[in-house]
Amino acid sequence: MELPKVLQIDLISKKSNVETLPIQVVKKYLGGKGLATYLLAKKLRPERLDPLSPDNVIVLGAVPLASSEFPCGAGYVISTVSPLTQSIYHFYGNGFLSLYLKGLGYDYLVLTGSSNRPAYLLVQPNAQVLFFSGKSIWESCPADSLRILQKDYPESHISAVGLAGVNMVSFATFFPDAAHPKFVARGGLGAVFGSKNLKALVFSKPAQMPPPPAPGIRHYITQYRQGIDRLVVPPEQPQKTFFKRYLRYADITEVFAENYHHLYTEEEILKWLEGIFKYSQVLPASVPLCPTRFSLSYQIPAGQRYSGETGSMPGFEDIYALGINLGLNEPGDYFHLNQLCYDLGLDPIEMGFTLGTAVDGFIQKHLDESETKEKLEWGKVDLFERLILQTAKKESFGQKLSLGLYGLLRRFPHSGLTNCVHLVKRQGIRYTTNHILSLFHLVTSCVDVHRDLPYPIFQPNYRRLCETLFHREPTPQELDFRQPEGKGKIVWWTENYLTILHSLGLCHEPVFAEFRTGDEFSFTVLAEMASIVSGIEFTTEQIQDMAQRILLLQRQINIALSGEQESISFPKQIPEKKEIKLSSMLAEYYPLRGCTPQGIPRSLEMLKFQLDPQHINRC
Q1: If you placed Cys at 62, which of 1, 66, 335, 601 could pair as Cys (CB 3.0 to 4.6 Å)?
Q2: CA 395 vs CA 94, 167, 172, 358, 403: distances in Å
Q3: What pLDDT digit, counting tens, does each position of 175-193 carry?
Q4: Average pLDDT over residues 90-118
Q5: Per-residue confidence (pLDDT) for residue 276, from 0 to 100
Q6: What number is the average pLDDT over the span 548-556?
Q7: Residues 6 or more apart from 503 whose CB is under 8 A from it?
Q8: Burial (0-12, 13-18, 19+ Cβ within 10 Å), 566
Q9: Among positive and negative, which fits the CA dihedral 560, 561, 563, 564?
């Protein structure tokens, strides 16, 4: 087997070298999320780390299954310490980036330190990395950066950040493929690149692309495609049927119902969505090599404020965050705001809920005009456009907005701000990522599902999952999302399962779409796939132990980052709901994860998985 090669780039010394990881490390962590967590642990000194300091590390890696012939399998992971959450953040994507990286002879790229001036990097084979001044493109949008750089590197792959990234806004996005600007890495990854004075990464065209997947994998590719077929919505499918399918999948009606100033029935939501889609036309997948994605183009019709503007239709979460969440009911208005966020390199979801919380706080007199510089009120698209620009530039009230939703909320007293519920949106506060609290927020509030959280919760196969876990017919309490019984085990199992999926490079969406009996992509099947792609024989038990090891290591790092030796609890700004029996869920979850009742990994559990309880960098 060919062992993973890591291109290490020191941005301070401008030196680079290639390290080959030993087989013992691959046996413990496999690849993808697993090896990315290992590399972070090896390079970080996490105690009280400032994510925007040169001490932070960025890991970019191609997954073991990366291949242009594997559907959804041209995958990569990008990992760092998020300035938004102060914890490890993993972004999983599909596209050509992994193929270029592997084609150049690398499996992982590790960025340490910080450049002394604005720069972009040209990554070439044989550890050749060239530094160029990024001053001419420093404040340009990713699309403009792509156009400028492609003049000099016409067949390269380009990743970039926008204005918000170079200004280190805590929820600035990173564009892994600048040619597809609607596919972004969230979690403040753009701000980390900005803190390192990095505007873009340019990957030169490889002499040849990676080889096709191993012959033994082809059987699983066929099964994987069956899951994809269950997800893909044909362009000719009637729109209303599509809407209802989406509503069932994402429980978006509950998301809308949580909004404090609008309460809609499903029929009202469908009517609203149909109004949006009068602007639109269904197009093929917008994400390269990812057949589960669809896109919609739009053109704002004559007579509207932004008449004639065209673009790619925002995602449903973006539409909600920048639409009725801000009291805007005209689609053209929030389409315009969404496009503005992408042009500036801002996460539109985090931006929308931060703006909503600011207006809410202003109305409840937690903010006044001496801070905001103007009156904040619902439904004012011109106001929100100004505030978005201020945020990207970190000017005026935008300085405070640039801290993100939780950063803004920390200034408020304990209150009934109903936008607090959206703290559990994607890449929300540190309490949400890979913690049982996230699940309980999900099952009671039905907000968006984080990639590292249990996707089957909203799937029709939830009963099947329970039967697989409990080896019997689940009880009514276990099936009731509001009851704590069995939920700790579900979170523990699903975290383990998703960790192996993301360490192999399998997209969770088609896997869970095909998860009907519990046998299609069981841990046994995942062990077989891991054995084929790595050349190392893995048993089911070894794969399950691997997941536990990766998650314990990640948890240990997150605890060191936060400096908190206490159990997970609700942030003080969020009133705990009476129906949330968090302690009962934690009592079931922590022993399974090998933690104390306070959520700290036990020393014996760490030693069992060859993890040093004291020194993370000796993992």
Answers
A1: 66
A2: 35, 10, 15, 16, 12
A3: 998 877 667 888 899 999 9
A4: 92
A5: 63
A6: 91
A7: 29, 30, 31, 32, 33, 34, 35, 63, 64, 546, 547, 550
A8: exposed
A9: negative
